[in-house]
Amino acid sequence: MSFAHNSMADDLSYDLKAQKVGDGVYVFIGSTDHFNRENGGNIVNTGFLIGETGVVVIDTGPSLKYGNEMRAAIGAITPKPVRHVIITHHHPDHFLGNLAFDDAQIWAMDETIQAIDREGEGLLENMYRMVGDWMIDTTLVKPGHSINQSHMDLSGRKIQFMPLQGHTKGDLAVFDEKSGVLFSGDLAFHNRTPTTPHADIVQWMHALEQLEKHPYNVVVPGHGPVERDGRSFKQTLDYLIWLRKTLYQAAENGLEMTEVMRLDIPQRFQSLSVARAEFVRSVAYLWPAIVEETLPRLYD
Ligand SMILES: [Zn+2]
């Protein structure tokens, strides 16, 4: 995979703007669109915490360029060094900026590290195809540190880890005790239709119940605006319940996959970004297993 370095690439910028969401806690809020050549893969929320002795980064974005711009934006706010990076899960928009932080300790759940081992190269190649020049010089950097503990003190910030699953096989929610900011990773989407390429819907629903019970002041969802009343949890759960019910119902009614993709989407989900496109993708991902699961019942 080689993309010539050219002047076009030098003009590209994510124009990252840090938004303060708590005491020493900042986020970069991405677009709620699909990956494309205008947003360069910046469809994701990332963030950072300023501790006594250093900075903790949460997710590194879709590319080296994003990671570098993130690092520069952090440097404009604090002179403290980035010492730790936490990766919430293995999706490409969340960790392909790791190379920009390869002098820091990069932490993730074992499940995430294994998924990067299995799928990382493919995910990286796919990003080059989708957003092109924005990916220049981006290479795979695997997290070198595995998270097995529920609490850690990182640069003087007390962090709580919630190892969950459902959006993928390893979804880490990160809670900063001082500010009460809860980073949900992609377990929560806000005003943006959830994606399901690696989803286990039932496990995801359980994870959302856990998150809803956890105290917080601010929720930073994986995609979409930050919120303070848990509405991203409720919205994601509501969508997953509808999606699952709709697919099982369709299987029982003997629909074809193309018919399922054309089913009505309720009004309350039509206002979510990329509602139809993401529903169609979810049908493609989830339908085969549901058909397999429901078929034997039909012939019992
Ligand atoms: Zn994801």
From TrEMBL:
Matches recorded under Pfam families: Lactamase_B
Gene3D superfamilies attached to this UniProt entry: Ribonuclease Z/Hydroxyacylglutathione hydrolase-like
SMART domains named among the record's database cross-references: Lactamase_B
Protein origin, superkingdom: Bacteria
Cited InterPro entries: Metallo-B-lactamas, NDM-1-like, RibonucZ/Hydroxyglut_hydro, SoxH-rel_PQQ_1
Coiled-coil intervals, chain numbering: none
Domain Metallo-beta-lactamase: 43-223
Any one of the GO BP annotations: antibiotic catabolic process
Transmembrane parts of this sequence: none
Protein family: Belongs to the metallo-beta-lactamase superfamily. Class-B beta-lactamase family.
Official protein name in the record: Metallo-beta-lactamase domain-containing protein
